[in-house]
Amino acid sequence: MKTTPSTRIITAVGAVALSMIGLSACSGGASGSESGGSESMGESSSASSAPMESPSASGGGADADLVGSGCAAYAKQVPSGSGSVDGMAEDPVAVAASHNPMLTTLTKAVSGKLNKDVDLVDTLNGGDFTVIAPTDDAFKKIPKKDVEALAKDKDALTKVLTYHVIPGKLSPEQIAGEHKTVEGDKVKVSGSGEKLMFNKSKLVCGGVKTANATVYMVDTVMMPGKM
């Protein structure tokens, strides 16, 4: 059977995801269910230490629902400006992610800079979503040649990116459970507190609010069918 770039990528990334120890797991959450809202985006549907502030301590601001052992390091790296917690809350998700220095590779992938035929910016900014956002360090776990091959495959790249998007905004209290992604397959969110995981990908910092989405930054790129 002929091996395609897509099958080689999925096999390679799956092996990486299964073998990684990654960052410390984090976040809390009660049991959740599939979110509402549109389930289609069309063919082309973007640190570690103690958590920042608890909801009770933060007074309900943009950082009120933050969870994750990487949140304090994220806040230290981006204390103010468009890429900060408060700054991201002001913009729709694709714009907000473009200002975050931890999400530069994902931003390129969803904005047509890896493949001109895969531009999801308008769609991501046009609805309510939960975005599981692999950090730049997550993409670095994938061999460069496999990333380059994925970038050339429009369908494979679209599937991988839309697998990281769940319709509807899920808070840390709602995120645990199995959720159908825009790609069509389900992602399993398990654990609680410091042990929250998205499939086998560990949380860096989650509950980050944007104008239309809730973002969970993770340490490993997930692949459809690898739940």
Automatic annotation (TrEMBL):
Residues 36-57 have a biased composition (Low complexity). The keyword Signal applies. Residues 90-222 form the FAS1 domain. Residues 29-62 are annotated as: Disordered. Residues 1-25 form the signal peptide. Keywords: Signal. One of its GO terms (cellular component) is extracellular matrix. InterPro entries: Adhesion/Biosynth-related, FAS1_dom_sf, FAS1_domain. GO terms for molecular function: cell adhesion molecule binding. PROSITE patterns: FAS1, PROKAR_LIPOPROTEIN. The keyword Repressor does not apply. PANTHER family: FI19380P1, PERIOSTIN-RELATED. This is Fasciclin domain-containing protein. It comes from Brevibacterium rongguiense.
